[in-house]
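Running co-folding for adenosine-5'-diphosphate.
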Amino acid sequence: MTSSLEPLPPALRSMWRLCKLGYRHEPGLMAAAFVLSLVAALPDALLALWLKLLGNGLIEHRATLVRVAAVGLGVSAAGSWLLDTVSARVQRRFRDKVTIALESHVARLQASVSTIAHHERPEYLDRLAMLRTQVFVLDHMYLSVFSTCAWILRLGVTIALLMAIHPALAALAVFALPTVLTSTWRPAIERRAQERGAQAMRLARHLFTTATTAPPGKEVRLTGIGPRLQTGRREKWEEWYGPVASARWGSAIWHTLAWTVFGGAYVGAVVFVAAWLGRPAGDVLLVLAAGSRLSAYIGATVGEIGFLRGFWMDGSRRLAWLEDYAASIAATADLPVPATLGRGIRFDGVSFAYPGTTRLVLEDVSLSLPAGAVIAIVGENGAGKTTLVKLLARMYEPSSGTILVDETPLGRMPADRWRSKLAGAFQDFFRFELIARHSVGVGEVAHMDDDAAVLAATDRAGAADVVARLPAGLDTQLGQTWPGGVEMSFGQWQKIALARGFMREQPLLLVLDEPTAALDAETEHALFERYAAASRGRTGITLLVSHRFSTVRMADLIVVLDGARLAEVGTHDELMARGGQYSQLYEIQAAAYR
Ligand SMILES: Nc1ncnc2c1ncn2[C@@H]1O[C@H](COP(=O)(O)OP(=O)(O)O)[C@@H](O)[C@H]1O
Ligand SMILES: [Mg+2]
């Protein structure tokens, strides 16, 4: 299997999808936040217009014009404060709500991906980890899009005002570009110079610490290296500071040049309007006010787009990828899960390597698990027993070959429907720190609060003694970090996990993957004997992984795995008669007990 990953979906489309997602969850708030941020941009941009009217009014002694301008200025100032405040509130509300919506969306998507391959492939993990951290900032993307639009609006209004005086004034925007470029470059160039000198700086700090702190003090005095430390530190500091200073100077010169260009153009524009076109003072005022804003607006627009392009664009692409990935997996599940098993489950040439690895953990396994049978899987550690169980639970898809349930490919059944027909307990079980009733009950959520069902499962698992010893019975909180919580031993937790596995009655497949390793051999034996007896005559399959041959021997069918391959299959008597691997292992264990 290669570790190449499908590329992330294209940026603009992903961002558009994210916008639609936000709109779907919060249409009203999103529209309000967007419109408000646009409207809030206007008073600022219109300032130049009011100044022009004011200037013309004063010079031409037109009282109405002055009044209009004064009102305009007042409304602009007050409106800009009001709109900023309201807009900030609305945006915060929108952000809070959309963050929750996005988080649940991502969580739902992750859970809907039926295999757990994406939890284990490093490249996927990276993508998901980034997404998990970025989902908190994806909401910024909306605000960033809004404010980009607002900056563009301000810029547009300003350029339109300038062009209303004379179209050639639009060229002022072009002259502002160098200032944008240099102000974007400056921090990057300085940071690079600092990074280059980081080693020298670290050494300088180290020398300073050595010369001034107590622990090295004795040796510094004894050896008399104090002065050397000082000169050394000075040298290193200069080694760091030299390039940084020249980078700062260099970038400052470029920055100054850029501003000189813009300043020249700005002055030129004013002269052009005042002297060349001979326009009234109001127009000159407009050019003065609008022109001075221009470079700030362009800078802000470019900066905001830079933000969008970096972090948030990336986040939206990851989210779009996860949506596609989840959808592509869901799309192939088109066949129903049978209600009962007729024939059983069949492995047909199944090979499997864990995602991102090449070593086959299962190799060309062909095997029939007849309906209604109790089947034991044995094999040394690492033989692939748990992997086989995980494939059956559809945690992974086989790399090649097929698993058939009553001759229907398992891969084409919806994973959640299939899993609702499974029950099981695992060696590496999880400790659900809930009240005891629920810690067992989550094995079948529908019956979580049904005490009869919970107690029956507890009985089947031989966990009745564990519950009986809890101070408040089924109401006891498990896990001592919780208020009133009790801690249990590993073995007790394991019994609770086992009981959880027995919550589903009559599953199509029950897997018991060394769930009783912490129990003694006799208890395990008794437990399985009881369980096997109860399950005979039903159509469900019981799959049992154990190292204890006393337990294994009572299975209807024993499957021996050896280094990824299927070594032997048969009943205890058949395998003993064969004198192969199983009989040898059995003899060794039996001898140890004699
Ligand atoms: N998530 C995983 N990623 C990569 N390799 C794994 C993973 N889980 C198990 N393996 C490897 O697969 C092999 C079989 O493991 P497993 O099925 O757990 O063995 P068993 O249950 O028989 O002891 C082992 O070599 C193990 O190292
Ligand atoms: Mg295992």
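Result summary
Strands lie at 344-353, 360-370, 374-378, 400-405, 408-409, 422-426, 509-513, 541-545, 557-562, 565-570.
The chain has a mean pLDDT of 85.
Job closed.
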